Amino acid sequence: MSATIRLAKYLSHAGVCSRRGASRLIDAGRVTVNGRAANHIDHVSDQDEIYLDGQRIDGLAPKLYYAYHKPVGIDCKLRAEDPSSLIHHLPPEQRTYPIGRLDKDSRGLLILTNDGELCNLLAHPDHSHEKEYWVEVDKPLDEAFFTRMSAGVPVDGILTKPCVCTALSPTRFKIILTQGLNRQIRKMARYCGYRVVDLLRVRIGQLHLDPTRLAENQFTELTLEEVKLLKK
Q1: pLDDT tens-digit map of 110-128
Q2: Domains in the chain and their CATH numbers?
C-alpha cells in the first residue's frame, strides 16, 4: 500500500476491528504511530510503524469469513480473562471478531470476520440490512402485541423502527429488524408486557442459519457465494 489512508480505515483493513472499533481504540490511547500516540486525523501506510497494545500491526490481512452458531451462555465481548467469552471459541490463530453481537442469553447466527468494511456494511443502521429472529415469550400473544411491535416502541429513549413481526405459535413470534439497539427485542417485548424466554437469530441479510450444517458452538468458513450474499 503506497497511498495513505485514515488510521481507523487502515486498522479495519488490517483485520484488527471495525472502523468504529478502531476509533474507540484510538480514543483509549491504545494505538501508536511511529512511536507517538495516534490521533484520528493520522493518515498512514504500510511504511508507518503502527502498534496496538505494544504489538505491531503488520499491514493488510487476508480476509476471513465464518458463520458461528452461538449457544446460550457465550458472551460476545472478547475478554480473554472471561471463560464464557466468545474469544475462546473463535477460529484458532486467526484474528476475527463478531458482527452484530448476540447477548449472553441469546443464541443463533453470528458472522465472524476481520473485514472491517463488511462489518460497517452490516452493522451500520443506514444500510438497513435485515436480521431475523424467532422468539419465545412467557405467555400467549395477542394482536395488540403485534401491532405495537410492528409500529415501533420506545427503547432507551429511542422509538424503534417499524418492523415485520408475525406469529409462529401462540407464544412464539418472528421479528425482522433493520437496527441493532442493545437487547432491543427483549426490551421491546418487555414494553408490551412480555418476557423473552428464548431468542434465536436465524438470518443475517440473505445468509440463513442451517442447524443441519452448523451445530451449536461450531463455526464454518463461508463460501465466496455466501460472502457475496452478505454484501448485497
Answers
A1: 999 888 778 777 876 666 6
A2: 5-56 (3.10.290.10), 65-124+209-231 (3.30.70.580), 130-204 (3.30.70.1560)
